[in-house]
Write a structure and sequence with these properties.
The complex is a heterodimer of chains A (about 375) and B (about 120).
Chain A: H1 10-15, E1 19-23, E2 26-31, H2 35-45, E3 47-51, E4 56-62, H3 67-75, E5 90-96, E6 102-110, E7 120-124, H4 129-139, E8 144-148, E9 153-159, H5 163-170, E10 182-186, E11 192-196, E12 205-211, H6 212-223, E13 228-230, H7 233-242, H8 281-289, E14 295-301, E15 312-314, E16 320-330, E17 335-342, E18 352-357, E19 360-367
Parallel strand pairs in A: 3-13
Antiparallel strand pairs in A: 1-2, 3-9, 4-7, 4-8, 5-6, 6-7, 9-12, 10-11, 11-12, 14-17, 14-19, 15-16, 15-18, 16-17, 18-19
Chain B: E1 2-5, E2 10-15, E3 18-23, H1 25-31, E4 34-38, E5 45-46, E6 51-57, E7 61-65, E8 70-75, H2 78-81, H3 85-88, E9 97-101, H4 113-121
Antiparallel strand pairs in B: 1-2, 2-3, 3-9, 4-6, 5-8, 6-7, 8-9
Classes of the chains: A alpha+beta (about 375), B alpha+beta (about 120).
């Protein structure tokens, strides 16, 4: 077994009493003494701090110093429109293979800081990052550089209705960000961060990229605020599930297109044709046209029994129509929640289905996501 | 009345031919917040080591195995609405089921409270 990697906060997690588990090659906190349920509810009520330093952070820039060259290069690899990003604007997108299957999902920001607005900043999944870097190195043209920052940058997320209030105590300018925008600013006299108003919980909040050397000090500073609790991967999963957000390896994999995964909102209109010029564009266009392909839906089990990943979904006649990709208990929803793929004709909210849990069919229905309302700050 | 423990962290309290089965404090802590318990049907027959119940935390589902064999005579219906009882009082109000013991000899090989405590300390 290969040795698990540690984030710079590893000893901090252990000192806080976290239960550590292997995740994407890292030894990561799954929960703290507060427990998954308490951490989940705390994040929705106040502010939860997540160490997400296992995720990959990198920059793309062009040697000619223009944003246009870098943006055009990245547009060959993702469905999202990049050239029209304003300085400080952030978009969610995916890396696709030639067949339009999903290799990873990621956040892309155009830096807003003067003198750096030609640069793109990417955050990718921990479990995919090495393959992502190789994919980019293979496909980015000469003159466009990938600069991987995993040796120098950590990543924190502060999420919840009090998150921005807490950060604004350190620098009031945090309040000026709106959902899916990004900037660079100092949080103390010495700690500068890349900060975006985004996250993975459905709540308002920020993701904060900070130097390895500063991450422990910043974490201590944030934890000293009365609204802030440390949150582990367990609650991170239940929070994103209630928010209806995809998790790579569950809802997304190399066989699934972003159209099937319900991510059409992340593909701007002029990027939906087969000749849009990025890897996998043909599949995106054909899945849009072909009404027979499967779709990701929310599934609400009746009763209290959770339906976990790989649970079979049947129609009311007992025919297999799909499979649960993520499922569990939603502490805010107050009951079981699940997501899964079903054949196209079963996607309508309210459609009754059966879930085969431990050999027994249990009633459920297709529902609109999210299971807990999104509380994004759109200005 | 005697109490016995398995290596899988179930307990069985024995009074005559009646056994009450649940999961230990150690197991309840390790599982975290319990959100659902699936209990067997009254009247079901189970052998030693058979799946007796399923306990679900926010994160995952775990099987609970019968420490010894018997017929299910009663289940703790209160857990349906209040699964958190398993965390609050796993070796009391958070019990899972009662069985009519079919063969008391099967208790041999289970741990008493002191032996189980030592076992947990070694984990």
């Amino acid at each position: 077994m290969t040795e698990l990697k540690h984030t710079k906060l590893h000893s901090t997690h252990v000192a806080l009493g976290a239960k550590m588990v292997p995740f994407a090659g890292y030894d990561m906190p799954v929960q703290y003494p507060l427990g998954v349920l308490g951490e989940h509810k705390h994040t929705r009520a106040a502010a939860g701090l997540f160490d997400v330093s296992h995720m990959g952070q990198c920059f793309i820039s062009a040697e000619d110093g223009t944003f246009e060259t870098a943006a055009k290069a990245l547009e060959k690899l993702v469905p999202a429109s990049i050239q029209d990003l304003e300085p400080g604007q952030q978009r969610y997108s995916q890396f696709l293979n030639e067949d339009g299957g999903t290799l990873d999902d990621l956040m892309i920001s155009r830096l807003g800081f003067e003198g750096h607005t030609h640069k793109l900043y990417l955050v990718v999944n921990a479990g995919c990052k090495d393959a992502d870097y190789a994919h980019m190195r293979k496909h980015l043209p000469e003159g466009v550089t990938l600069d991987v920052k995993d040796d120098t940058l950590s990543l924190l997320a502060l999420q919840g209705p009090k998150a921005v209030e807490v950060l604004a105590r350190l620098n009031p300018a945090v309040k000026d960000l709106v959902f899916m925008t990004h900037t660079d600013l100092p949080l103390t006299q010495t700690i500068w961060v890349h900060i975006s108003r985004s996250g993975y919980t459905g709540e308002d909040g920020c993701e904060i990229s900070v130097k390895h050397d500063d991450v422990i000090a910043l974490t201590k500073l944030l934890l000293a605020e009365p609204e802030v609790e440390m949150i582990g991967l367990g609650a991170r999963d239940s929070l994103r599930m209630e928010a209806g957000l995809c998790l790579y390896g569950h809802e997304l994999d190399p066989s699934v297109s972003p159209i099937e995964a319900g991510l059409i909102w992340s593909i701007q209109k002029h990027r939906r044709s087969a000749d849009a010029g990025y890897l996998g564009a043909a599949r995106v266009a054909s899945d849009l046209a072909d009404k027979t392909t499967k779709r990701l839906v929310g599934i609400q089990p009746e009763g209290r029994a959770p339906a976990r990943e790989h649970t079979e979904i049947q129609d009311m006649d007992g025919n297999v129509i799909g499979e649960i990709t993520s499922g569990g208990f939603g502490p805010t929803a107050g009951g079981p929640v699940a997501m899964g793929y079903v054949a196209r004709k079963f996607v309508k909210a309210g459609t009754p289905v059966q879930l085969i849990v431990r050999g027994k069919p249990r009633p459920a229905k297709v529902v609109k996501m999210p299971f807990a309302p999104h509380n994004y700050f759109r200005g | 009345m005697s109490i016995h423990f398995t290596e899988d962290h179930e307990w069985i309290a024995v009074d005559g031919d009646v056994g009450i089965i649940g999961i230990s404090d150690y197991a309840a802590k390790a599982l975290g917040d319990v959100v659902f318990v699936e209990l067997p049907d009254v009247g079901a027959e189970m052998g030693k080591g058979d799946e007796a119940a399923v306990v679900e935390s926010v994160k995952a589902a775990s099987e609970v195995y019968a420490p010894i064999g018997g017929e299910v005579t009663e289940v703790n219906g209160a857990l349906e609405d209040e699964p958190a009882k398993v965390n609050e009082d796993p070796q009391g109000d958070g019990w899972f089921l009662k069985i009519k013991i079919s063969d008391a000899d099967e208790l041999e090989g289970l741990m008493d409270e002191a032996a189980y405590k030592t076992y947990c300390e070694g984990l």
